[in-house]
Amino acid sequence: MWKFLHKLASPPHFYDLSAKIIPWFSVGALAFIAYGTIAGLFFAPADYQQGDAFRIIYVHVPAAYLSMLAYTAMAVSAGIGLIWRMKLAHAVAAAAAPLGAWFTFLALATGSIWGRPMWGTWWEWGDPRLTSELIMLFLYFGYMALRGAIDDTAKADRASAVLALVGAVNIPIIHFSVEWWSSLHQGPTLVREGGPAIVPAMMYPLLAMIIGFSLLFAALLLARVRSEVLYRERRTHWVRKLLMPSEEST
Amino acid sequence: MKPRQQRMLAVGLAVAGLAIAAVLTLRAFEENLMFYIEISDVVQGNVPQDRNFRVGGLVVEDSVIRKPGELEIEFTVTDRKNELTILYSGLLPDLFREGQGIIAHGQLGDNGKFVADTVLAKHDENYMPPEVADSLARHVADKAANQTVAEEATGSAE
Predict the structure, then answer these.
(1) Domain A22-236 is of which CATH architecture?
(2) Which pLDDT band, with edges at 50, 70 and 90, does B2 fall under?
(3) Strand-pair partners of B119
(4) What is the pTM of this model?
(5) Is the Cβ pair B103, A192 closer than 8 Å?
(6) Cβ <8 Å between A189 and B15
(7) Where are the domains of chain A?
(8) What is the ipTM of this complex?
(9) From residue B4, how far is each of A59, A79, A81, A164 by CA, in Å?
(10) Which chain A residue lies closest to B119 (C-alpha atoms)?
Protein backbone atom coordinates (compact mmCIF):
# COMPACT_ATOMS: atom_id res chain seq x y z
CA MET A 1 0.00 0.00 0.00
CA TRP A 2 2.69 2.51 1.04
CA LYS A 3 4.87 1.38 -1.80
CA PHE A 4 2.00 2.00 -4.22
CA LEU A 5 1.39 5.48 -2.78
CA HIS A 6 5.06 6.37 -2.95
CA LYS A 7 5.22 5.24 -6.53
CA LEU A 8 2.04 7.21 -7.34
CA ALA A 9 3.54 10.35 -5.84
CA SER A 10 6.44 10.21 -8.29
CA PRO A 11 5.57 12.63 -11.13
CA PRO A 12 6.65 10.43 -14.10
CA HIS A 13 4.70 7.48 -12.76
CA PHE A 14 1.64 9.65 -12.13
CA TYR A 15 1.95 11.05 -15.63
CA ASP A 16 1.83 7.57 -17.18
CA LEU A 17 -0.89 6.18 -14.91
CA SER A 18 -3.23 9.18 -15.28
CA ALA A 19 -3.08 8.90 -19.08
CA LYS A 20 -4.57 5.42 -18.75
CA ILE A 21 -7.26 6.42 -16.22
CA ILE A 22 -8.60 9.61 -17.81
CA PRO A 23 -10.39 7.92 -20.77
CA TRP A 24 -12.26 5.59 -18.39
CA PHE A 25 -13.42 8.48 -16.21
CA SER A 26 -14.43 10.49 -19.29
CA VAL A 27 -16.50 7.68 -20.80
CA GLY A 28 -18.13 7.03 -17.42
CA ALA A 29 -18.91 10.73 -16.97
CA LEU A 30 -20.46 10.92 -20.43
CA ALA A 31 -22.62 7.80 -19.83
CA PHE A 32 -23.91 8.92 -16.42
CA ILE A 33 -24.55 12.52 -17.49
CA ALA A 34 -26.31 11.39 -20.68
CA TYR A 35 -28.60 9.04 -18.73
CA GLY A 36 -29.21 11.63 -16.01
CA THR A 37 -30.02 14.40 -18.50
CA ILE A 38 -32.44 12.33 -20.59
CA ALA A 39 -34.13 10.62 -17.63
CA GLY A 40 -34.23 13.84 -15.61
CA LEU A 41 -35.64 16.02 -18.38
CA PHE A 42 -38.00 13.59 -20.10
CA PHE A 43 -38.86 10.63 -17.86
CA ALA A 44 -38.94 11.96 -14.30
CA PRO A 45 -42.45 13.16 -13.35
CA ALA A 46 -43.15 16.86 -12.74
CA ASP A 47 -43.13 18.01 -9.11
CA TYR A 48 -46.42 18.46 -7.22
CA GLN A 49 -45.57 22.05 -6.31
CA GLN A 50 -42.91 23.32 -8.67
CA GLY A 51 -44.02 21.54 -11.86
CA ASP A 52 -41.24 21.27 -14.43
CA ALA A 53 -39.16 23.99 -12.77
CA PHE A 54 -37.85 21.48 -10.24
CA ARG A 55 -35.74 19.89 -13.02
CA ILE A 56 -33.01 22.48 -12.40
CA ILE A 57 -31.95 20.29 -9.45
CA TYR A 58 -30.33 17.94 -11.98
CA VAL A 59 -27.68 20.62 -12.52
CA HIS A 60 -27.92 22.63 -9.31
CA VAL A 61 -27.48 19.81 -6.78
CA PRO A 62 -24.50 18.08 -8.50
CA ALA A 63 -22.82 21.46 -9.07
CA ALA A 64 -23.25 22.45 -5.42
CA TYR A 65 -22.02 19.04 -4.26
CA LEU A 66 -18.96 19.21 -6.52
CA SER A 67 -18.19 22.77 -5.43
CA MET A 68 -17.75 21.46 -1.88
CA LEU A 69 -16.04 18.22 -2.90
CA ALA A 70 -13.51 20.18 -4.98
CA TYR A 71 -12.75 22.46 -2.03
CA THR A 72 -12.34 19.46 0.28
CA ALA A 73 -9.99 17.83 -2.24
CA MET A 74 -8.05 21.08 -2.52
CA ALA A 75 -7.73 21.55 1.26
CA VAL A 76 -6.77 17.91 1.93
CA SER A 77 -4.15 17.99 -0.87
CA ALA A 78 -2.80 21.28 0.46
CA GLY A 79 -2.53 19.75 3.96
CA ILE A 80 -0.73 16.67 2.63
CA GLY A 81 1.58 18.94 0.65
CA LEU A 82 2.39 20.97 3.76
CA ILE A 83 3.01 18.03 6.07
CA TRP A 84 4.73 15.53 3.76
CA ARG A 85 6.28 18.15 1.44
CA MET A 86 4.77 16.26 -1.47
CA LYS A 87 5.00 18.31 -4.67
CA LEU A 88 2.34 16.30 -6.45
CA ALA A 89 -0.18 17.10 -3.67
CA HIS A 90 0.42 20.84 -4.14
CA ALA A 91 -0.07 20.38 -7.88
CA VAL A 92 -3.43 18.68 -7.20
CA ALA A 93 -4.54 21.55 -4.93
CA ALA A 94 -3.54 24.16 -7.50
CA ALA A 95 -5.34 22.27 -10.28
CA ALA A 96 -8.56 21.79 -8.26
CA ALA A 97 -9.17 25.50 -7.52
CA PRO A 98 -10.45 26.77 -10.91
CA LEU A 99 -12.66 23.69 -11.33
CA GLY A 100 -14.17 24.22 -7.89
CA ALA A 101 -14.74 27.91 -8.62
CA TRP A 102 -16.66 27.01 -11.81
CA PHE A 103 -18.86 24.49 -9.99
CA THR A 104 -19.53 27.09 -7.28
CA PHE A 105 -20.49 29.66 -9.89
CA LEU A 106 -22.77 27.13 -11.61
CA ALA A 107 -24.48 26.27 -8.30
CA LEU A 108 -25.03 29.96 -7.46
CA ALA A 109 -26.28 30.82 -10.97
CA THR A 110 -28.74 27.91 -11.25
CA GLY A 111 -29.96 28.54 -7.70
CA SER A 112 -30.57 32.18 -8.52
CA ILE A 113 -32.46 31.38 -11.75
CA TRP A 114 -34.67 28.94 -9.81
CA GLY A 115 -35.10 31.29 -6.85
CA ARG A 116 -36.64 34.11 -8.88
CA PRO A 117 -39.91 32.27 -9.79
CA MET A 118 -40.04 29.95 -6.75
CA TRP A 119 -38.97 32.07 -3.79
CA GLY A 120 -39.74 35.37 -5.45
CA THR A 121 -36.17 36.69 -5.34
CA TRP A 122 -32.90 36.29 -7.28
CA TRP A 123 -30.78 36.63 -4.20
CA GLU A 124 -31.30 37.16 -0.48
CA TRP A 125 -28.50 38.68 1.54
CA GLY A 126 -28.50 37.17 5.00
CA ASP A 127 -29.55 33.67 4.04
CA PRO A 128 -26.86 31.44 5.63
CA ARG A 129 -26.72 28.87 2.79
CA LEU A 130 -26.49 31.45 0.02
CA THR A 131 -23.96 33.59 1.88
CA SER A 132 -21.64 30.72 2.89
CA GLU A 133 -21.62 29.38 -0.70
CA LEU A 134 -20.74 32.87 -2.00
CA ILE A 135 -17.93 33.09 0.59
CA MET A 136 -16.56 29.83 -0.85
CA LEU A 137 -16.48 31.39 -4.34
CA PHE A 138 -14.41 34.26 -2.90
CA LEU A 139 -12.14 31.77 -1.11
CA TYR A 140 -11.44 30.10 -4.48
CA PHE A 141 -10.75 33.52 -6.03
CA GLY A 142 -8.46 34.43 -3.13
CA TYR A 143 -6.60 31.14 -3.43
CA MET A 144 -6.01 31.60 -7.16
CA ALA A 145 -5.05 35.26 -6.75
CA LEU A 146 -2.55 34.41 -4.02
CA ARG A 147 -0.95 31.72 -6.19
CA GLY A 148 -0.77 34.15 -9.09
CA ALA A 149 0.85 36.83 -6.94
CA ILE A 150 3.83 34.70 -5.85
CA ASP A 151 6.36 33.81 -8.54
CA ASP A 152 8.27 31.16 -6.63
CA THR A 153 6.30 27.91 -6.94
CA ALA A 154 7.38 26.43 -3.61
CA LYS A 155 6.46 29.64 -1.75
CA ALA A 156 3.16 29.92 -3.60
CA ASP A 157 2.39 26.29 -2.67
CA ARG A 158 2.96 26.87 1.03
CA ALA A 159 1.18 30.24 1.30
CA SER A 160 -1.86 29.11 -0.69
CA ALA A 161 -2.03 25.81 1.23
CA VAL A 162 -2.49 27.76 4.48
CA LEU A 163 -5.30 29.79 2.88
CA ALA A 164 -6.97 26.60 1.60
CA LEU A 165 -6.86 25.05 5.09
CA VAL A 166 -8.20 28.19 6.75
CA GLY A 167 -11.11 28.30 4.30
CA ALA A 168 -11.93 24.63 4.92
CA VAL A 169 -13.78 25.73 8.07
CA ASN A 170 -16.48 27.04 5.71
CA ILE A 171 -17.32 23.56 4.33
CA PRO A 172 -19.24 22.23 7.37
CA ILE A 173 -20.85 25.66 7.70
CA ILE A 174 -22.24 25.42 4.15
CA HIS A 175 -23.47 21.89 4.72
CA PHE A 176 -25.15 22.45 8.09
CA SER A 177 -26.28 26.06 7.50
CA VAL A 178 -29.82 24.95 6.67
CA GLU A 179 -30.02 22.87 9.86
CA TRP A 180 -28.35 25.20 12.37
CA TRP A 181 -30.17 28.37 11.40
CA SER A 182 -33.51 29.31 9.99
CA SER A 183 -33.01 29.94 6.30
CA LEU A 184 -34.84 30.52 3.05
CA HIS A 185 -33.05 27.57 1.45
CA GLN A 186 -34.75 24.24 2.15
CA GLY A 187 -33.16 21.47 4.17
CA PRO A 188 -31.34 18.44 2.72
CA THR A 189 -33.41 16.08 0.55
CA LEU A 190 -31.09 13.12 -0.10
CA VAL A 191 -29.02 12.77 3.08
CA ARG A 192 -31.45 13.21 5.95
CA GLU A 193 -33.00 11.37 8.88
CA GLY A 194 -35.73 9.04 7.71
CA GLY A 195 -34.30 8.53 4.22
CA PRO A 196 -34.49 10.62 1.03
CA ALA A 197 -37.56 12.85 0.62
CA ILE A 198 -37.73 12.33 -3.14
CA VAL A 199 -39.52 9.63 -5.14
CA PRO A 200 -37.23 7.05 -6.86
CA ALA A 201 -38.22 8.13 -10.41
CA MET A 202 -36.86 11.61 -9.64
CA MET A 203 -33.97 10.43 -7.48
CA TYR A 204 -32.16 8.00 -9.81
CA PRO A 205 -31.44 10.59 -12.52
CA LEU A 206 -30.21 12.92 -9.77
CA LEU A 207 -27.84 10.28 -8.36
CA ALA A 208 -26.64 9.55 -11.90
CA MET A 209 -25.91 13.25 -12.43
CA ILE A 210 -24.00 13.43 -9.13
CA ILE A 211 -21.86 10.41 -10.12
CA GLY A 212 -21.43 11.80 -13.65
CA PHE A 213 -20.35 15.22 -12.39
CA SER A 214 -17.91 13.56 -9.96
CA LEU A 215 -16.33 11.50 -12.77
CA LEU A 216 -16.15 14.59 -14.97
CA PHE A 217 -14.42 16.46 -12.14
CA ALA A 218 -11.97 13.57 -11.64
CA ALA A 219 -11.12 13.46 -15.37
CA LEU A 220 -10.70 17.25 -15.62
CA LEU A 221 -8.66 17.34 -12.41
CA LEU A 222 -6.27 14.62 -13.61
CA ALA A 223 -5.85 16.36 -16.97
CA ARG A 224 -5.09 19.65 -15.21
CA VAL A 225 -2.66 18.00 -12.77
CA ARG A 226 -0.84 16.45 -15.76
CA SER A 227 -0.19 19.82 -17.36
CA GLU A 228 0.68 21.30 -13.95
CA VAL A 229 3.21 18.48 -13.39
CA LEU A 230 4.75 19.00 -16.84
CA TYR A 231 5.21 22.70 -16.15
CA ARG A 232 6.64 22.16 -12.67
CA GLU A 233 9.03 19.43 -13.84
CA ARG A 234 9.94 21.24 -17.06
CA ARG A 235 13.66 21.23 -16.23
CA THR A 236 13.84 17.55 -15.34
CA HIS A 237 15.30 14.81 -17.45
CA TRP A 238 12.10 12.80 -17.91
CA VAL A 239 10.06 15.74 -19.20
CA ARG A 240 12.76 16.71 -21.70
CA LYS A 241 12.95 13.14 -22.85
CA LEU A 242 9.15 13.01 -23.15
CA LEU A 243 8.82 16.21 -25.14
CA MET A 244 12.00 16.08 -27.22
CA PRO A 245 12.99 12.44 -27.73
CA SER A 246 15.20 13.23 -30.75
CA GLU A 247 17.33 15.71 -28.82
CA GLU A 248 18.00 13.15 -26.10
CA SER A 249 19.26 10.48 -28.47
CA THR A 250 21.85 12.75 -30.08
CA MET B 1 9.93 14.63 17.23
CA LYS B 2 10.67 14.40 13.57
CA PRO B 3 10.15 17.54 11.44
CA ARG B 4 7.29 15.85 9.61
CA GLN B 5 5.51 15.09 12.87
CA GLN B 6 6.07 18.67 13.99
CA ARG B 7 4.45 19.94 10.81
CA MET B 8 1.59 17.50 11.28
CA LEU B 9 1.04 18.80 14.81
CA ALA B 10 1.24 22.43 13.68
CA VAL B 11 -1.32 21.94 10.89
CA GLY B 12 -3.56 19.90 13.20
CA LEU B 13 -3.48 22.50 15.97
CA ALA B 14 -4.03 25.37 13.53
CA VAL B 15 -7.09 23.68 12.00
CA ALA B 16 -8.48 22.79 15.45
CA GLY B 17 -7.92 26.32 16.75
CA LEU B 18 -9.59 27.78 13.69
CA ALA B 19 -12.57 25.47 14.07
CA ILE B 20 -13.00 26.55 17.71
CA ALA B 21 -12.70 30.22 16.73
CA ALA B 22 -15.34 29.72 14.03
CA VAL B 23 -17.72 27.97 16.44
CA LEU B 24 -17.34 30.76 19.03
CA THR B 25 -17.85 33.48 16.42
CA LEU B 26 -20.93 31.80 14.99
CA ARG B 27 -22.40 31.33 18.48
CA ALA B 28 -21.80 34.98 19.30
CA PHE B 29 -23.66 36.07 16.17
CA GLU B 30 -26.32 33.38 16.47
CA GLU B 31 -29.25 35.82 16.46
CA ASN B 32 -28.00 37.81 13.49
CA LEU B 33 -27.45 34.66 11.46
CA MET B 34 -31.12 33.75 11.72
CA PHE B 35 -32.70 34.59 8.39
CA TYR B 36 -36.12 35.03 10.01
CA ILE B 37 -37.71 35.25 13.45
CA GLU B 38 -40.16 32.62 14.67
CA ILE B 39 -43.80 33.69 15.07
CA SER B 40 -43.83 32.85 18.80
CA ASP B 41 -40.93 35.24 19.40
CA VAL B 42 -42.74 37.99 17.50
CA VAL B 43 -45.96 37.44 19.46
CA GLN B 44 -44.02 37.54 22.74
CA GLY B 45 -42.46 40.82 21.67
CA ASN B 46 -38.89 39.57 21.14
CA VAL B 47 -38.39 41.68 18.03
CA PRO B 48 -35.95 44.42 17.06
CA GLN B 49 -37.45 47.87 17.61
CA ASP B 50 -37.66 50.44 14.80
CA ARG B 51 -36.00 48.09 12.38
CA ASN B 52 -37.33 45.88 9.62
CA PHE B 53 -37.05 42.14 10.16
CA ARG B 54 -38.25 38.87 8.64
CA VAL B 55 -40.80 36.47 10.05
CA GLY B 56 -41.31 32.91 8.85
CA GLY B 57 -44.27 30.56 9.19
CA LEU B 58 -46.95 28.54 7.47
CA VAL B 59 -49.91 30.26 5.80
CA VAL B 60 -53.04 29.20 7.73
CA GLU B 61 -55.70 27.43 5.61
CA ASP B 62 -58.66 29.67 4.61
CA SER B 63 -56.99 32.75 6.12
CA VAL B 64 -56.15 34.58 2.87
CA ILE B 65 -58.39 37.60 2.34
CA ARG B 66 -58.08 39.53 -0.92
CA LYS B 67 -59.87 42.81 -1.54
CA PRO B 68 -61.52 42.61 -4.94
CA GLY B 69 -59.82 44.73 -7.60
CA GLU B 70 -56.78 45.48 -5.41
CA LEU B 71 -53.37 43.94 -4.80
CA GLU B 72 -53.82 44.19 -1.04
CA ILE B 73 -53.89 40.89 0.75
CA GLU B 74 -54.25 39.86 4.37
CA PHE B 75 -53.36 36.42 5.69
CA THR B 76 -52.37 34.63 8.88
CA VAL B 77 -49.16 32.66 9.43
CA THR B 78 -48.53 30.14 12.18
CA ASP B 79 -45.67 28.17 13.72
CA ARG B 80 -48.31 25.74 15.06
CA LYS B 81 -48.18 27.48 18.46
CA ASN B 82 -48.94 31.12 17.78
CA GLU B 83 -50.41 33.08 14.90
CA LEU B 84 -49.61 36.42 13.30
CA THR B 85 -51.61 38.42 10.76
CA ILE B 86 -49.68 39.85 7.81
CA LEU B 87 -50.73 42.70 5.53
CA TYR B 88 -49.10 42.88 2.11
CA SER B 89 -49.59 44.71 -1.13
CA GLY B 90 -47.72 43.46 -4.17
CA LEU B 91 -46.91 40.44 -6.31
CA LEU B 92 -46.68 37.03 -4.67
CA PRO B 93 -44.27 34.24 -5.69
CA ASP B 94 -45.59 31.18 -7.59
CA LEU B 95 -45.32 28.93 -4.57
CA PHE B 96 -47.45 31.15 -2.32
CA ARG B 97 -50.54 29.22 -1.25
CA GLU B 98 -52.40 28.17 1.88
CA GLY B 99 -50.39 25.70 3.96
CA GLN B 100 -47.11 26.89 2.36
CA GLY B 101 -44.11 28.11 4.36
CA ILE B 102 -43.45 31.79 3.67
CA ILE B 103 -41.06 34.48 4.83
CA ALA B 104 -42.22 38.09 5.10
CA HIS B 105 -39.97 41.14 5.47
CA GLY B 106 -41.34 44.28 7.10
CA GLN B 107 -42.37 45.85 10.40
CA LEU B 108 -44.79 45.16 13.20
CA GLY B 109 -47.64 47.69 13.08
CA ASP B 110 -49.24 49.29 16.13
CA ASN B 111 -52.27 47.03 15.86
CA GLY B 112 -50.15 43.89 16.26
CA LYS B 113 -50.37 43.12 12.56
CA PHE B 114 -47.20 42.69 10.52
CA VAL B 115 -46.92 45.04 7.55
CA ALA B 116 -44.78 43.32 4.90
CA ASP B 117 -42.94 44.92 2.00
CA THR B 118 -41.71 41.57 0.61
CA VAL B 119 -43.20 38.08 0.77
CA LEU B 120 -41.04 35.10 -0.23
CA ALA B 121 -42.18 31.49 -0.51
CA LYS B 122 -40.09 28.85 1.23
CA HIS B 123 -39.83 25.55 -0.52
CA ASP B 124 -39.60 22.29 1.45
CA GLU B 125 -37.23 19.39 0.81
CA ASN B 126 -39.90 17.05 -0.60
CA TYR B 127 -39.97 16.16 -4.28
CA MET B 128 -42.82 14.04 -5.67
CA PRO B 129 -45.32 13.93 -8.53
CA PRO B 130 -48.88 15.27 -7.85
CA GLU B 131 -50.38 11.76 -7.69
CA VAL B 132 -48.06 10.80 -4.83
CA ALA B 133 -48.80 14.08 -3.03
CA ASP B 134 -52.56 13.41 -3.40
CA SER B 135 -52.35 9.88 -2.04
CA LEU B 136 -50.14 11.06 0.83
CA ALA B 137 -52.70 13.74 1.69
CA ARG B 138 -55.46 11.09 1.56
CA HIS B 139 -53.51 8.83 3.93
CA VAL B 140 -53.05 11.69 6.38
CA ALA B 141 -56.76 12.56 6.15
CA ASP B 142 -57.73 8.89 6.68
CA LYS B 143 -55.43 8.66 9.66
CA ALA B 144 -56.85 11.86 11.16
CA ALA B 145 -60.41 10.57 10.60
CA ASN B 146 -59.58 7.23 12.24
CA GLN B 147 -58.02 9.05 15.15
CA THR B 148 -61.13 11.18 15.72
CA VAL B 149 -63.29 8.07 15.56
CA ALA B 150 -61.01 6.34 18.05
CA GLU B 151 -61.00 9.38 20.35
CA GLU B 152 -64.77 9.59 20.21
CA ALA B 153 -65.01 5.89 21.02
CA THR B 154 -62.75 6.21 24.09
CA GLY B 155 -64.56 9.45 25.02
CA SER B 156 -67.96 7.75 25.05
CA ALA B 157 -66.56 4.83 27.02
CA GLU B 158 -65.50 7.10 29.86
Answers:
(1) Up-down Bundle (1.20)
(2) confident
(3) B104
(4) 0.86
(5) no
(6) no
(7) 22-236
(8) 0.74
(9) 42, 12, 11, 20
(10) A120
